[in-house]
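Write out the 3D structure for:
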Amino acid sequence: MKRENSEGALIQLQAYIAQGDFDLNDRLPAERELCETLGLARSELRKAFAILESEGVIWRHVGRGTFVGNGHGKGAEFLSIAAIAKRTTPREVMHARLVLEPMLAREAALHATAEHVEQLHDSCIKAREAVAWRQYESIDNQFHSLVAEATQNTPLITMYEQLNALRRTIVWGRLNRRTEEPTPAHHSFAEHEAIFAAIEQRDTDSAQAKMKFHLLAVSEDLFPTA
């Protein structure tokens, strides 16, 4: 099961589980209730379930329901992120991103393969074609994940994945959008393209600076100073 095919539903389901007071082996609400709560089609929810089940975050028993964790460690790991989320704030998560992600962009400029570069380019194109904020946010998440993957450094990728899971848990559902879809002038379009260009050109200093500039703009969106 490929994550990109169900990313929006997956993010919502992960955030729902993380924000709830679930312990290992707690049962989740029925599919119909979850669909109504999350605003998802049954097919979307089931695809997200399949991904989380393959990763050990949930397990399912025919006739009994869907439960948190599978006894093999990953469910407990996911719940630990939920526990961290309850002890942190969106500002702390944003600061952590500002510390980590510019460095990841620098490393990506050094180690990205041609395939990574092509995928980053495709992500920039898809972002401008997004017709809803949920679709754009899924593409945005994919772009930042690709930057981390392009470092080709397993510890760095793992650190990013943990921070990203925390970010999605903390921030999900908290932004008030003024429009139903991103406008053509949305700042992240050009900022992602500048990051991509720096990585493509192997310009480490520029990749680091452009990522920092982008995250500062995102921070301003989340925490306006005026």
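The CA atoms of residues 123 and 142 lie 7 Å apart.
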